[in-house]
Amino acid sequence: MRSLTGSGGPTATIVMYHVVRPASGLAATLKGLDVEAFRGQLEYIRAHYTPVNLFDLADAAEGLRSLAPRPVVLTFDDGYAVQREIVFPMLCETRTPAAFFPAASSMIDGRVLDINKIQLILAVSRDIEPVITAIDRAVDREAETGGVSRAEYRRQWWIPSRWDAPAVAYVKRMLQHALPERVRRPLIDDLFRGLVSADERAVAAELYMSVDAVREMHQAGMSIGAHADRHLRLPTLSRHEQETEIDGALRVLDAVGLPRHRFAFCYANGDYDNDSLELLRSRRCRLACTTQPDLARITRNELLTLPRIDTNDLPVRSDAEPNEWTRRAALNDRLSNDP
Length: 339
Description:
It contains 15 helices and 11 strands. Strands 1, 4, 5, 6, 7, 10 and 11 form a 7-stranded mixed sheet that branches. It has a two-stranded parallel sheet with strand order 2-3. A two-stranded parallel sheet has the order 8-9. Helix content is 47%, strand content 11%.
């Protein structure tokens, strides 16, 4: 971990969540905390941190307010229905603010995001080899007309990730971004229809929150931000394509009744480049979150590149001893308040 100690100014912990798993249903097949683990982690967080609103960070950076001791912001990506059904009541019960980042094409258009199609394909595949075989066949067809070879793809992407073994990481990377879109998208759709469901709208209706659900959470005091339209990695797109993806993501704000200025944004897969930053600045984005695991330094210059730690970086027992992330947050809090 890179330490922020001694860097000056306040820091905050931003925690990234996706799915809190129910006992059954599609969301139960996705990776995430189960309900009791989330409950324990929420109690741990409230014991060692002060939950604050996401926009409190921007206010602090702009000199409009002081932050509470050891501030923490809970953020929830992708707009899953379980966030309304399971998470939201627990947040209301404990009076814990949080920020939610639904994707526009799933919430508004009834589409299943490619990232979730891939997760569901993997979830129902007891044997990953047929999925790898399908990828290899698509790669070999492309190689016949001058595309990248199977060996080169394996060399570059058959590498373990922070959370996955090499084979699973390879499938995710190939289907998420490594393959050309003209190959990747039809392949994902074929695998999804064959292994998961031919009724995409029905899957989306079960998996994601509706506009009404998101609007209800906003009216109850939760922050709602823009995340993605189709959940594409911005740096893989041209500047014009990035504009289209970002403006599509802002449809979430329109649907909920929020203005398209001074909004919060969350980069799909945490990825951004200089074009992304310029486009968000031109649209008067107030702050944006990445997936870089670190404490967030709260300054004007860093509001569009805020790091977040993962839910797996914190204990899930209410009585757990403070871990390294929590100790660092406490130390930085003390140092930033020293005269």
